[in-house]
Design goal:
heterodimer; A: 131 residues; five-stranded mixed beta barrel; 2 helices; B: alpha/beta; OB fold (Dihydrolipoamide Acetyltransferase, E2P); eight-stranded mixed β-sheet; 16 helices; 36% strand
Chain lengths: 131, 799
């Protein structure tokens, strides 16, 4: 009996541990289409989450169609769970606590990060990114 | 006493960058044993014994190393410091081996156009130069091979319209997944993990209107029907119809750069402002041979050193203070509180040849955690919307980077000499230079420039004055000058940028190269501006002409030298490096230039020398006083100028030759070197008059002469008056085994034009074994009010 209780306690502890939390425990995105595809979820009540995963990016380049000169563009950032599910990532106001250069993380599948932030069902607004 | 001297020496050396080359000397004894001594060889040839054996791979390689001085019981030695590792702040993720690329042309369901045939698309991607494949294989030095994995040789029709894609959460992702699934369903193709997918679309979906391309930064994971696929994806959109005739290689190269992990390396203000890097967003239209005949391509112009380093092929030859030779894919880095600054030279290379200018450029690699990490650094503080085309250092230019002076002293088509820290007299030897003399100076002052020219390489660089922004085909040399009067307004480069209001603006560069200003502050206004009388000069130069005392004063000690003394100084000021050469009188100036030509200058910023015995009377900083080391020089050429000629005649002499600088009254024929350039007309130069007197044919039947009655140059063979202005005579006459080269015009500017002609076009004349001469008319080339070159037309030749 004691063993069972211990296992249950351990299981509860594992599920509730913030660094190991899974998307499902904190109202994750429901679609799993692509890494670079924004998840199609309806807005929800913002909730603070801490997720472990990967950072992805893609760049949109605009040109002047007359001259061919690139005149602008933007970089989109994504947080991915490693299973094909991604969400948009906004780290404008985030604090970074990474041991290596930031690009090492978004260029490597072997370098997961933890993102603590606010998930509103559309965008993950990061407050802290660390490894 | 000896120890004190060594300590003083050590302190003196330590003030400066201490670097050199490791050389070894093997002594073989008769008993068969041997011992090897290792030395650090400084730039001036000094050998300092190494106190411990250096790494074998450094010996005799010519690779510059840094060292520290070590005081031992037997004297001062040097210890080679371990090569500095590039800072960790510059990340590195080398890429190598085959990169597998799948190419698909896809049509949106609601757009039927097929703007390209597949050969076109194939060639832009995988063809020979210029192509995406060629660019990256070339830039990465063969480290990667870009291999087509699968090419879908017909247009693929996507299942959804552009609007439908835009209604998904991500048009980019949905298009990519549809393509992945279509490839699998129609051709059974599954893309390999970590491969590359290029999708050429016949139109941008509405939500990406005006987008030319989208690239994933590195690999993304996409959920195809057959499972998740980790690929880097480029989507290229047909954004203009001219693309069917004029392939935009730049966009393909650019997006693939994103696929390799690179972000935009533009300026802080504009991430697309970097003409020196393909991922900077700027290309150039170039008409090139192609299988269609000629095709106008839009191509990129290189890759910055931080990106090359990141991808595993860029190297750093050193860091911090020192004199560094940087070449393709190599540079120097400087650490600072806001990141790491990289210094590199862009010129040689298949794609760099389409840069408008060759130059040393600086990037800052940010260590802050954010998106962009490479920033083009505006060294000249020219700010605006598009300023990377002007913010580079050409020879002679200097800027503060990360708290240190960075100066470019010399360059050729592949390498540049970059000095980090304040350049010394030893550093400037051999620099590319421009020579400036006072317009009101005595000729003997000015002819000193001829001596000075033996020490330096004249700066005659490619220029591109007639230039429409973004449209150029090649660099062109327009017979530029490199010797000027102090009051001339001349521009050797006219660079273009776009200011914050979007207006195209000029950035003119007055001189190229280290500017050697010859003559004292009373005779040369440029010298006066930098080293005015009666007070210390620019940058704290302590030596100046004291008008009350009538001599050169050392502001630090108050000591004054009233005769037989001269100043030679390196003065970085603003964005340029100057070398000042001036004495108390004209002869002292000439001797000072001769000291520069015949002696080994110390690693000091400035010296006062005794012009009789070349002793260093004072140095800045102190510690280099004493006898000069003067191996001397063997002069193969002399330039002779009339003692009473206008100063511009002497300017022409410096254009014509480096060597002995003589006045006509000083010529002793038997002591002249094999080549003698006599500069200035028969009325101004008695040596010229000997060979080419007025009003009659000259030496050996030379038919061209100045007619005093007709006021112009006459061809004695016909009696015709060839010209009365803007023309000159150049002649090579062989007299008693010496080549006497005449260069003279109607006026002083014509004479200088004659010497410029000799420099740029005189080879065939100078190589002639018999007497030859030409009469040439000339004019200045100008644009936007700036003179930038000369134009020549031959009027007559002899024989």
């Amino acid at each position: 009996m004691a063993v069972v209780v211990a296992l249950v306690v351990a299981a509860v502890w594992l599920v509730s541990a913030p660094l190991e939390s899974t998307p499902h425990t904190q109202q994750p995105p429901q679609t799993t289409d692509t890494t670079t595809q924004q998840t199609n979820t309806t807005p929800q009540q913002p909730v603070e989450v801490t997720w472990r995963g990967y950072i992805y990016a893609r760049v949109v380049d605009f040109v002047d169609p007359t001259s061919g000169q690139m005149i602008g563009g933007y970089t989109e950032w994504f947080f991915g769970f490693g299973n094909g599910t991604t969400v948009r990532l906004d780290f404008t106001n985030a604090t970074f606590r990474l041991r290596d250069h930031f690009l090492v993380y978004y260029m490597s599948e072997e370098r997961p990060v933890y993102v603590r932030g606010v998930w509103n069902g559309t965008v993950l607004k990061a407050l802290e990114i660390y490894d | 006493m000896t120890k004190a001297l060594f300590v003083l020496l050590a302190l003196g050396w330590l003030v400066f960058a201490f670097s050199g080359y490791v050389v070894g000397r093997d002594v073989l004894f008769v008993n068969g044993s041997s011992v090897t001594y290792f030395f650090l060889r400084l730039d001036n040839g000094t050998l300092i014994p190494l106190v411990e054996p250096p790494p074998a791979y450094l010996v005799g390689t010519g690779e510059r190393v840094e060292a520290e001085l070590v005081y031992t019981e037997v004297g001062v030695g040097a210890r080679v410091l371990a090569p500095r590792e590039p800072t960790q702040a510059i990340p590195r993720q080398p890429v190598s081996g085959p990169l597998l690329v799948t190419l698909v042309a896809a049509k949106l369901a609601d757009v039927s156009a097929e703007p390209y045939n597949m050969s076109y698309v194939h060639d832009v991607l995988f063809g020979p130069f210029p192509s995406m494949r060629h660019f990256w294989e070339y830039m990465l030095g063969g480290a990667v091979i870009i291999r087509p994995y699968y090419i879908h040789w017909r247009w693929l029709t996507l299942p959804r319209t552009g609007a439908q894609y835009c209604n998904t959460s991500s048009a980019f992702g949905s298009i990519t997944i549809d393509v992945l699934n279509a490839l699998y369903n129609t051709a059974g193709v599954r893309l390999p993990d970590r491969s590359y997918l290029v999708i050429v679309l016949n139109a941008p979906p509405p939500c990406y209107s005006s987008a030319a391309g989208i690239g994933t930064v590195g690999f993304g994971v996409f959920a195809a029907t057959y499972g998740t696929v980790r690929v880097a994806v480029t989507q290229y959109y047909h954004y203009a119809d001219w693309l069917t005739r004029e392939p935009d290689v730049t966009v393909f190269v650019h997006e693939f750069g994103h696929n390799l992990g690179l972000l935009h390396p533009g300026t802080l203000a504009n991430e697309y402002d970097n003409v020196w890097d393909a991922v900077g967003g700027s290309g150039v239209f170039v008409r090139l041979s192609s299988w269609l005949g000629t095709t106008r391509y839009y191509i990129p112009r290189g890759l910055s050193l931080p990106h090359l380093y990141y991808l595993g092929v860029g190297q750093f030859v050193g860091s911090g203070a020192g004199s560094w030779l940087v070449g393709p894919r190599s540079g120097v880095y400087l650490s600072a509180s806001d990141g790491v600054y990289t210094v590199e030279y862009k010129c040689g290379g298949v794609y760099e040849q389409f840069l408008d200018w060759c130059g040393v450029v600086v990037h800052r690699v940010s260590s802050s955690a954010s998106g962009r990490w490479v920033f083009f650094h505006t060294v000249l503080n020219v700010t605006g919307r598009f300023v990377s085309p002007v913010n580079f250092l050409d020879v002679g230019q200097s800027a503060w980077v990360a708290g240190q002076r960075v100066s470019v002293l010399w360059r050729n088509s592949t390498h540049a000499r970059v000095v980090v820290g304040l350049p010394t007299l030893a550093d400037v030897v051999g620099a590319n230079a421009t020579f400036v003399v006072g317009s009101r100076a005595a000729t003997i002052d000015s002819v000193a420039a001829v001596y000075a020219r033996t020490v330096f390489s004249p700066t005659a660089t490619f220029t591109l004055p007639v230039f429409q922004l973004g449209i150029s085909n090649s660099r062109t040399l327009f017979n530029p000058l490199f010797a000027y009067l102090d009051d001339e307004q001349w521009q050797t480069q006219v660079r273009y940028y776009v200011d914050s209001a979007g207006t195209r603006r000029l950035y003119p560069v007055r001189y190229l190269g280290v500017v050697v200003s010859v003559g004292g502050p009373l005779a040369n206004s440029l010298t006066r501006a930098l080293n005015p009388p009666d007070r210390p000069g620019a940058g704290g130069l302590p030596f100046y002409y004291d008008t009350a005392a009538g001599g050169i004063r050392d502001a630090r000690t108050g000591q004054v030298w009233r005769s037989r003394a001269a100043v030679v100084a390196v003065v970085p000021n603003g964005s340029r490096v100057y070398v000042l050469v001036w004495g108390i009188d004209g002869e002292d100036t000439r001797r000072a230039a001769r000291w520069l030509a015949e002696c080994v200058p110390p690693r000091a910023y400035a010296v006062v020398i005794n012009t009789t015995d070349f002793r260093v009377l004072a140095s800045w900083p102190s510690g280099f006083e004493g006898a000069s080391v003067c191996p001397g020089a063997v002069y193969t050429a002399a330039a002779v100028v009339g003692a009473n000629a206008a100063s511009i005649d002497a300017v022409g002499a410096a254009m014509a030759a480096g060597g002995l600088g003589l006045l006509d009254s000083e010529v002793v024929f038997d002591r002249l070197p094999p080549y003698v350039f006599s500069v200035g007309g028969p009325l101004a130069n008695s040596f010229t008059r000997l060979y080419n007197p007025p009003d009659r044919p000259g030496f050996g039947g030379l038919p061209f002469y100045y007619s005093t009655s007709r006021g112009g140059i006459v061809d004695g063979r016909t009696g015709a008056l060839l010209c009365t202005s803007n023309c000159f005579v150049v002649a090579k006459l062989v007299d008693r085994g010496k080549a006497v080269v005449l260069a003279w015009g109607i006026g002083g500017h014509d004479t200088r034009a004659a010497t410029a002609y000799l420099y740029h076009h005189g080879r065939s004349l100078l190589d002639s074994r018999s007497n030859v001469a030409r009469v040439v008319s000339w004019s200045y080339l100008s644009q936007d009010g700036y003179r930038y070159g000369l134009n020549f037309t031959t009027l007559a030749t002899w024989p």
